[in-house]
Structures are given as structure tokens and as C-alpha cells.
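Rotation project, supervised by the postdoc (A.L.). Task for the rotation student: set up a whole-complex structure prediction and record inputs and outputs verbatim in this book. Inputs entered:
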Amino acid sequence: MMDSLDAVVAQVQALSGSADDCVHLAGLLKQSEQVLQVHAPRVGYALQALDPAKHSLGYLYLLEAHSAGTLSRELAGSFLVAATNFLTVCSADQIRLAIDKFNILCRRLKDHAMQMMEPSSALLPLYAAIRKSQPSSEYLTPLHADYLLLCLLSKCYKAGLKILEDDIFEIDQKRTGLIPRDFLLHCYYGGMVYIGLKRFGKALEFFQHAITAPATVLNAITIAAYKKFVLVCLIHNGQVPPFPKYTPSVVQRNLKSCAQDYFDLANLYNSRNITDVKRCVHAHEDVFKNDTNMGLANQVIASLYKRNIQRLTQTYLTLSLQDIAETVQLEGPKEAELHILQMIQDGEIFATINQRDGMVSFQEDPEQYNTRKMANKLDSEIQNIIRLAKKLTSVDEQVLCDQNYLSKIGKDRPRSVRPLPSFG
Amino acid sequence: MVIEGLEGTGSRGGGGGGGGGGGGGAEQMDVESYASLYTGHTKIARLHFIADHCHSRALELEALRMAADEIKKGENTTLYRENMEKIAGRLGGPYMLDQDWIDSVDRKAAQRQEKLEMELNGYKTNLIKESIRMGYNDLGDFYYARGDLQQAFKCYVRTRDYCTTSKHIIAMCLNVILVSIELGQFVHVSNYVSKADQTPDVQDPIVLAKLRCAAGLAHLESKKYKLAARKFVDTQFELGNNFTEVIGPQDVATYGGLCALASFDRAELKSKVIDNIGFRNFLELVPEVRELIHDFYASRYASCLGYLQKLKPNLLLDIHLYDHVEALYEQIRHKALIQYTNPFISVDLNTMASAFKTSVAGLEKELAALIMENQIQARIDSHNKILFARHADQRNATFQRVIQTGSDFQRDTRAMLLRANLMRHDFIMKG
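Outputs recorded:
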């Protein structure tokens, strides 16, 4: 019995050299899973004999077998240490050969970190794990969702930013072991991280990905994403856009009934009447609290004040604080002054307060679009767009050369006229 | 030119008929002269409307008395009964419920109905198109006189199948239009007006004028003031008194003038109303409307709004216009405010308030509302009470739009590529 375990260890040590050997090793290890399970308690010692950096594949299998099932506290602690170390030093090529196992291991790491209430401890190793399991930075892995969840729990939003700033284009199940649920979770958690960073525009983008992902059934993640989408839309844009036409019909039909309270809030927000909106939030307080959206709901109310004040800047050149307080339904001129001061500091309006007369003068946006900074910004945006357009062209070419596509096109047209694929 | 005198002639203003009631205070409408402008059913309907909606007993009784006289000339016993109930004996002797008259009229009517129906059946068996058509027509007229509008409508519509010349078709359409207007079903009115318009060889200007008026009324009812105005100002003056069972020429002037003021822009107002010779003839009948249009065009807003106020009580008693008066007045007032501020870079709100005869605070609120709806491009300096015109900076706006479009494009393209990938790998969330 011991022999089989030792045999496995020996194989690992022998075959971890070149790439071909590793592939061979992967096959062998798969077959030896049973063995590993049987010898679970002794695997810990076997691990000592292996070097996580050189024998990553074997180490992976052994570590995974070692940590299967429920672990005692100190075992869990030692597992965390071992896993952290492994993830930091392991070799990317090797672990890519057994990607499912790798995902299981990482998930286990995340679960233990959460159980021990130390989500931040798993951040660095998971980040390393993501970078290693991604064939390129455009691929989405199941680890993305776990990593973002840990960022949220530990409130380290900036850490999540590094992952989120990569544009995700490739969803390849075979190479990353991804399932649709992971994608939706990634969008949902990603949106929440952006909310934490107060970048509402990007948050909206992520939530919209979750809502418009192809689906045949409605699921809880989409509903939760939609609820946050509505609230963030109100804060950022002041109105909720209708569904884009590529939203799956299942979602379009059923979402209204699941999120009725949010719809009511959105409709009332349109009326710009602050007392109505406050009343609505109050009435649906339980629902909002259940969905942990109370904070967002309060931000919606605050944003309505701001929006009303901004509308005043479009209409008036100067206005007394008393009038502002009346129009926007604030308590009194003092509160109006506080609000406006805050907005000026945040750069949301351009105004000066004349305290002697109790007047506020509104000014135009001083941005003249003629500085070097602005020129640089425009330039970088143009570069981004050119890059994006190139990607679009390449994807288009890929589709044009795709067998399925050509056979479909070929069927519709007469044989004598073969279409030439166009470029650009 | 002072509007005085009680003689009802064709040159009197209809809607402004109350102007003759003496100067100052509440303008009392002169019911008699007003009613003398109309004939037929609309006269009675208008009198009833006035009686229902006016505020003075005297006027009410006067209207009901005239209505009673008019009804007795006809054969509509149900209406007679209704009228008598309204009067409720307040007018004394000759205006009590005359049951004998009712019975005799009903009897005669029953006999006539039988006779007409028998004749119609006879014609039907003989299958002579023209006779059947005339038979249905007569039946329709009979029902109309009796006040049974639904039946009359049905009969007139049936004549359609037996119409052979365009004249027949026009006659049929006009009858249906008449009944529909009285029923208040303006959808039918629009339908039959377009039917009549499509009939070839319609040359008679009177007929054309009637059709235009009917179309105008239909548009007015559905609150499409611009279309209504266009129809009314295009009505030929040959209409004269030929359509008084529906509408009088002074009404054409009033409705057309007010709708035009509320909905035409300055160029259209000049070309279609002020320079329009045909419509000018109508306006001569209602000098007040003519004056107020000219005042508006010449920016004499105080006097324009003054005329409007004077006309208001009488217009509220007009059956077609009463629920549009408020909306039209509001639109005219807004147009006046916008036109006033248009040529200036800065406007002192005090002078403007005196020009419009309101308070500065009220004026400020009105202007703020108009600015928020983007009807006026300006900003208010509430401290010094000045309105400053504000012209959007095109260059900045363009830059902002460019940046916005750029980021929208990027966002949408990224989403699309992601979605394309999801679909390629069949990455669908299934149960």
C-alpha cells in the first residue's frame, strides 16, 4: 500500500521535467486518484518529498487529496499555509494540464479563508492563481468570481481592480473549466466592487453583462444583479433605460415581477419629487434591507437632491438659498448651503456662495477642452478605440473563415457563385 | 368700432356676442342674438349647454325659453319633455308641459314612420336603386327630426350602398357628418370627411367649406390644435350661413384664430392667418379675435391678453370649445412669453411683468417652468431679477458628446464581443 503512494511520488519526481513528460504524468495521476484517496492521511508526508515549484502537477494532486473532506482547525491552518505557498510558486504550464483539480483546490482555499474569517489572507495567492491559470489576460476563470468575493468581504476594493481592468473576451470552458454560473457571479461581484470604488459607470456595465447573458431560465444572480442595476442607474444617470433588444426573453418577461419594488422606485424617481421617493424607500425598507441594498437606496435619495439642484443651475444664474431650499424641499437655507458646499467640493456643480446676501451664483463648467491634459486624454481614448476596432475585425475574420458559417452561406447561394470573404 | 346692438345679422360676432352687453364687469351674453345665428338641432343643443353652464338664473331661463320655442317647431317630443323638466314651471303659463301636443305629435310620427317603412319595403322589392336610396334618406331625416340619432345614423349609412353619383355620396357623407357631430362621435366625422374628399368631381365651394369645417371640429375635439387651425383657416368664405345647423362663420373665425395663435409659429401665423384673404373675411365678423391676433403679432401682449380675458366667459359657454379654452389660453400665453424674450440678450423682469400684467414672482415661476422645458434658452438672475439669454457653447457641447460617444462605443463593443463569445461556446445558463 505504501508502495503505491511511493510509486506515485516517484513518478511525479521522474516525469516533471519536460512538457511531454508532464502530459504523460497528468494521465497517470488521473488514474492514481483512487490511490491517493485511500492513502489520504499519509499524503501529508508524501507532500514533504515534493517541491511545489518543480513538481507542481503532482503536488497539486496530493494537496487536493490531502485536504478533501472536513479538516480540523490546525489542519485547516496548515493547509492554508501550504496552499498559499503552492499557489505562489507553482508552475503555470503544469497546473494547466489539470485545470479542474486546480479550480477545486483554489475554491477550497477560499472556503477555508472565509470560514476562518480571514478573507484577506487568501487574496494574494488567489491573484497569483488567476494569473497562472489564465492562458492570457483575456480569459475568464472560475477563480475570478471567488477572488472578487474575497475582495468584497475584506473590503479591499483596489485589489479587485487589478483583475477587473482586464477586458474579458474569451470564455473557453475547456481551457479554464468555467461554468455559466461563474460568469454571472463574476459580473455580479465585479459590479459590487466597482460600487465600492464609487465607479458607477463601470458597475453598470458589469451588471448589464449579467442581465444580458444568454439564458433560458431566470436565476437568482440575474435578479440580484438587476436590482442593483436599477439603483445604480438612478444614482448615476437619473433614469433606468429599457432592456436592450438582445436581452434574453426569459429575463425580459419575468424580471418585472421579481423586482416590482425597484420598478416603483424608478418610476417615482422620474417625477423628481423628493417626498414621494422618500416615502417609497421607507415603505419598501424591509425589501431593501433583505437584499442588502439599503445603503444604495439611501444613496438614491441623496442623488435626487443633487439632481434637482443641478437642474436649478440650468435655469438660474443666481438664486437665494431660501428659494433653493424651497424648490428642492430641504429643511432650510442652512441645509441648502451645506448641500451646495458639498457638491462644489465634489466638482458636481460650479458655483459660488455669497453668504452676506444668502445668494448662490451658478457658473458654467470652466472646462474649455483646450489643455494638454485633455488632448492626451482624447488621444488615449482614440488609441483604445482603434485597438478595440482591430479586435473586432479579427473576430469578424475568424467567423468568416469558420467552417460552420461557410457551409451555411454556401447552402443559401447557388453553387456557381461563391462568396469571397471580405476583409475590414 | 364698437360692438353694440341686439339685431342679429350676419356681421355680428358669435363668440363675442356678449360684448354687446355693456362695458365693464361680467359680460352678459346676449342669448337671443347668439341663438339667432344657428338653426336646427345645434341651436337647441347650444341653448341647453348655456342653460346648464351659465351662472345666472336669468340667462338660464332665457335660454330655456328660447329652446322651448324652437323645440315646439319640430317633432322631437323626448327633447321637449326634457326641456320642460328643466324649466320646471318657472316660466309660467305657455311653458308648462303640454301633454296634448306631445300625444298628437307622437301619433303623427308613428303614422309617418309606418308609411315610410312601407314605402321603403316597396322600393326594396322593386329593386330600384334610386328609390331605395331616397327611401332610406327620408327615413333617416325622419329619425333625425324625432331625435333618434342612432337610427338616423344607421339609415344614412345604409344609403351608401345605393349611391350612384358623387352628388349622392357627398349628400350621404354630409348627413352622416351632421349626425356624428351631434352624437359627439368625431372618429366617424374624420372618416366621412376623408371619404367625401376622395370623391371625384367635388367642385362646389360650399360643400368643400362644410367638409373643412367638419374636419376642423374633429381635430379640435381630439386636441390637435395645429391641424384644426389649418383646416379652419383654409375654409372658403362661401360657407356663409350654409352650415348653421352645425357651425356659424363667426365660430370658424374664433376657433381658427385661437387654435392658430396657440399652435402656429410666427411665419405660419403671418402667411396663413394675417395675409390670408379668405380667412380675413371671417375675422371681420369677430373683430375682437382679429384685434387680438394683430396685437399678438405686433407684440402688444397686454392688450392681446386683455382681449382674451374678455372673450373667455363666452367661450366657456360654447359647446365645442369649452374644454379647450384653458389649454389654448395657456399655450397662447406661453407663446407670448417666449416671443417676448426671444430678441433680447437681457430682460428686466419688472418691465416684463408690467407688460404681462402679472407679479414678478409669478412671472419668475412661469419663466422657470418654460426654461426647464427647454422652450426658452435663458437663465434667471434671481437676485437682480434679470433674465439673461444663454446660448449653448457649441464647441464644449461637441467635445462632451465626442467623449461620451467614444465611451459608449467602447462599452457596447466590449459587451458585444463578450456576448458573441458566450454564444459561440454555447455558454447558456440552463435550469
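Student's summary: The CA atoms of residues 166 and 199 of chain B lie 6 Å apart.
Supervisor addendum: The radius of gyration of chain B is 29 Å.
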